[in-house]
Amino acid sequence: MNEIVEMAREIKVYIHGLNIYPEEVTNSIISTANLINNTRNKYSESHFNHQADNTLSIYIRDLTNSLSKLLIHHMN
Predict the structure, then answer these.
(1) I need a labelling partner for 4 at 20 to 30 A (CA). Which of 14, 33, 49, 76 fits?
(2) What confidence score (pLDDT) does residue 47 get?
(3) Which residues of the chain have pLDDT under 70?
(4) Burial group, residue 8, by CB count within 10 angstroms (0-12, 13-18, 19+)
């Protein structure tokens, strides 16, 4: 198992134990770590033609967009 996934699991357990965030937030930590792990390691052939960079940037863009909408919704 990759170090980033192990670290993400420990962070998830810690944050989940604080009981201040919904489970979806703590689960997103594992999802993000797995995405980074997969684009960095398991799909190393995708580094050619910048496919891994493109996949990761699209994910981060969409995640940022979703979080921004969530924050705006709660601020109104």
Answers:
(1) 49
(2) 55
(3) 1, 40-50, 76
(4) buried
Phi and psi torsions of 21, nearest 5°: -120, 150
> Tell me, what's the pLDDT at 42?
56
Return the closest-CA partner of residue 29 out of 41, 47, 17. Answer: 17
Per-residue pLDDT, 29: 85
Q: Indicate the pTM of the whole model.
A: 0.55
- Check: CB of residue 27 under 8 Å from CB of residue 15: no
Q: Cα–Cα–Cα angle for 6, 10, 11, nearest 5°?
A: 115
Residues 76 and 71: their CA atoms lie apart, in Å, by 9
- Is the sign of the CA dihedral 52, 58, 62, 63 positive or negative? positive
